[in-house]
Each structure stands twice: as C-alpha cells, then as structure tokens.
UniProtKB/TrEMBL annotation:
CDD domains for the chain: ICL_PEPM
Family matches, as Pfam families: PEP_mutase
Protein name: Carboxyvinyl-carboxyphosphonate phosphorylmutase
Gene Ontology MF terms: oxo-acid-lyase activity
Top-level taxon: Bacteria
Signal peptide range: none
Originating species: Oceanibaculum pacificum
Amino acid sequence: MGTLRQILQRGEFVTGIGVYDMISARIADRTSANAIYVTGYGTVASHLGLPDAGIATYTDMVGRIERIVAGTSKPVIADADTGYGGLLNVHHTVRGYEKAGVSAIQLEDQEFPKKCGHTKGRRVIPMADMAQKIRVASDARSSEDFLIIARTDARTGLGLEEALRRGEAYAEAGADIIFIESPESEAEMAEIAKRFDKPTLINLVHGGSTPILPKERLVELGFGVAIYPGLGFLAAAKALEDAFNDLAAGKENTTPIYDFAKFNEVIGFPEVWEFDRKYAAPGS
C-alpha cells in the first residue's frame, strides 16, 4: 500500500474511513479502504462523552491516536484541531503525532475553543496567523512523508472566496493537502477541487452541510482525499439505541449484530489461543 504520500503520488484516490476507538479501527482496517481517519468529534465523544468543542487536550488525543496506529496497518490521518494552542503547541503537536506514527496531521484555522466543522458558531483566526502555524508545522516534522493538512472553516462565516484565498495562503506556507470545510453544493465542491495544484480533501459528514457524492464523482471533480468521520459512530449509535431499547423493554433483539466468533478474530483472540497452545502449562 505504501505511505499516504506514495498513494497520492500514484494518483490513487484516498478514502479515509472515520474511526473513534479500537473496535472501529480494527474493523476499518479489514476493509479495502486505503486510509483511516481518526475523527476528533468521534474520539472526544467516545472517550469523554462530550461535544467536539475544544474540550479535549493534546494528551487526551495523542495516546488514543498512537494506540490506533499501533493496532492497524493502513496510513492514519489524524485530527489535531487547532494544534492545541499557539505556535509552540503546534510544534509540539506535530512532533508528537509524527512520533505516534501518524501519516498526516489535520490543523484548522478556527479560534479557540474550536467547534465541529458542521456545527454553528465557528470563527476563524487571521489568515496570516494560520499561515504561520502551517510554517511551524512544516518545519517541525522530521520526514516529508508526514503530511500537513491545512483546513479552513472560513466558508460558513466569510464565504467561499475567502476560504479559497486562505487555502492558497496555507498551500504557499507549506501545507501538502488543502481542506476547505463545509462547502454547501456540488458547484462549490467543483470550484474547490479545481482551484489548487495540491491535493484537496473533502469532508463528507452524513447529516452535515456538504452533499455526499459517490467516489467516482469526487474523482471527476478532482479531489484527492475524502474522509467520512461520522458514518461509523452514527451507525453504531443507531444500532446500540435500537438494541438497548429492545432489551430494556423486554423484547427479543431484532437489531443486526456482529458474529461473535468473527468479532473474536477481529479483536485478536486467535493470537491469544496460539500463545496458550505454545506456552501455557497443560491443564492450566
């Protein structure tokens, strides 16, 4: 499969399945998708049970990201919000994410505290301040195979043209992939994809502001990367709600469930059983 940079250089479209814990990561790793995306929204919700509103810290995130990288085989794209502070924080965050084995870090130009990109009340910092963050991030990495994704949230509050201007500034500052958050139509998506000579990323949130287009259409428009941060936790939440409500009401479960034997395989029990066969004392 290679690194994320190699995948992009080969002209392959990158599909980043959104994961938020080790169960979702293990299952995503068994698919034919060529990347994994660690969603800040989902990880904060799973770990803290709180909204993606600038509450989670670098420490909250980096340990979970490191575990996901270690437990999977695909390139991992990881959300790093605003870099968790100022320029020195960005430098520290880039070093930490790269050490954790991440293939690409996503940094955004929101004011702190940030908010999920498909929710209300987002405000952005000055373009020059974000461009400096991207320069710091680019200089902080030890390998060019570690990619910098620059996200702007300017579309919603300041319009598409301002978001595109910011994308150009961030590309010039050293970003490898440009991410214009929350376009509201296919026409806007087309304008974004054709504007840059670097790969562009589209964030497809089920129930969000951006149309969910098939992969073939995204390729036609010119995008290089698509991430799907919400599909996993939304599907899991619906299944849990239905199954738990039936259980609480004393009803027979009718929700489709994962095969238990297959889940044992996904989570790694065959390796445990092989270890026991090799090392455990007879009768233990």
